[in-house]
Amino acid sequence: MDGRKKRANYMKQGGLKMYAPWVIWLIALIKMIYLYAQIGQKGITFYAAALFTVLFVFVLTAAVIPDVLGRMVYFQKSRDCSRNAHRLYHTVMILTLVVLLLICVPGFLLAEPLSRALFGTVQYAFPLQVGLIAVCFLALQQCMKGYLEGNSIPLPGSLSGIVTALVSLITTICLKNVCSGAGTRAAAVFRQEDYYYAYAAVCGIGGLAVGAFLGFLFLLFVMLLLRRTIRAELKADETRSPESRKNLLTDYLLLYLPQMFHELLFSALAFVCMVYAFHKGDVTMPLVLLVFILYMPVVLYAQQLSGYLARQLRVILKKQDYQHARERMAVMGKILLYLILPVCAFLLAQANVVSAAFFDENKELTQLVQTGCIMAVFLALAICARKLLSVMQRQLLCNGLTVVALFAGFWFFTLLSGSGRHAGKAFLQTIFLTALCLSLAEFAMICKRVRFRADLLRMIVFPLVSAALAGVVAFLMQLLLLKSLGGIMTLLLSAVICYVLYQVLIIFLGVFQKHEWRQIPFGSLPELLARKLGR
Questions:
Q1: pTM, entire model
Q2: pLDDT score of 1
Q3: Average pLDDT for residues 430-448, to the nearest whole number?
Q4: At 272, phi and psi to the nearest 5?
C-alpha cells in the first residue's frame, strides 16, 4: 500500500511539474507587457541585452543540471547507494559554484569594459551586473532541483520556478519608481538619456534577481526539512563502499557536456546575433524577446511532447520493436502539429491586434510576430527531432550537427541582415532556416533508423488546411470587430470561435482515430465534440 501511495504521489507531482512551465510563461508574459508599457521599446532594448546575456550564461553553466543530475541520482538511489547520490549532489554543487565564480565574478567586476566591447556603450553595465547575480541563484536552484527530482520529489522544483516568476513580477512593479528615479538623476548628471532607460530596465532584471534569490531560499528550506530523511538514508547506507568523487564527476561530465552543447545552440546564436546587431546600430533585435515569449507555448508543447515520446521510445527501442516505435511517432507527430499549427496561424492573423492590445501598436513588432509564426513551427520540429535523435544514441552526430548549425546560422544572419532587413526579422528568418535544415537532417536520420514513413495527409496536410482556414476566420473577425470591441475582447472572441472551428474541421477530416483523442492534452473536450457529431 505504501508503494502505491508513493507512486500516486509521484504521479501527482509529475502532473504539477508539467503545468508549472505554463504558469511561469503566463507570469512572464504579464511582466513583459507591464515592462513594455512602463519603459517602452528603448528600455526593452537595455532589458533584452542583459537578459540575452543572462540566458547565454545560464545555459552554459546550469540549464541542463536538473535533467542530468536527476537521472544520475535516481540511478544511484535505485541501487540503494544513497551515499553516492548525496556525494554526487555535493560534487555538482561545488563544480557549479566554481564555474559561476570563474564566469560571474570577472563579469561583474569587468562589466563596464565588457558592456563597451559587446554593446558599444557603458550603460549596459549595471543591468548586466544585476543579471549575473540572478544567474548565480538560478544555477544553485538547478542543483537542488536535480537532487530532489532524482529522489522522486519534483514538486518543490516546480514551485520554486513559480515563486521565482511571481516574485520577479511583484518586485519589478515595486522597483519601477525607484529605478526610474535613479535613472532620471543619472541622466541629468551624465547628460545622456540612455542612463534613464538603462536604470529603468534594471527593475526587470532586479526583479529576476530577487525572485531567483527567494526561489533559492525556498528550495533551501525544503532541503532543511528533508535533513532527517537524508541522514537516515545515509546511515542505512554506511556499509556500502562509496564511489570516488572523481568517478562520479567524470560520469556526470560525460552526460552533462553533450546535452549542454545541444541546449547552447539557439541561445548562443541569439547572443552572437544580438551583439552583431548592436555593433551595426540596429535596435530591432531586442523585440525578438517579445516574439519568443508570445510563441513560447509552441516551444513548451514541443518540449513536453518530445520528452514524453523520448521516454517511451527509450524502452521500445531496447526491445527493438520498430513497429511500435513507428506507431508512437506517427501519433505524437499528429498531436504536435495539431497543437502548434493553430496557435501560429492565429497569431499570424491577429498580429496587429496583439500589438494594439498590449504593445502600443508597434508596427515593427507586428511584422516580427508575423515572421515568427513559421519560425516557431520549425523550431518546434527541430526540438523534437533533436530529442529523439539523442534517445537513439546518436550523440556524436548531434554534436556535429550543432556545430554546423551554429556556424550556418550566423552565416544566414549576416547574409540576411546585409541584404537590408532589420536585425530582428533577419534573426527570426535565421532561426527558421537553421531549424529547417536541422529538422530535415535529423528526421531523415530518424526515419532511416526506425524505417518510419509519415502519413503526410493526416499528419501535415489536414492540420495545415484546418489551421489556415481558422486563421482566415480570425483575420476576418479582427477586421470586423477590432474597432467596435477593442483588442482584448477581439482576441478572446476570435480565439473561442477559431478553436471550435478548428476542432470541427479536424474531426470531419478524420485526423485522429477514436482511441487517439485520449492521448491529446485537454483532449476530452474535442472527443466529446466528436461523439456529438457522430465521428
A1: 0.88
A2: 41
A3: 85
A4: -65, -45
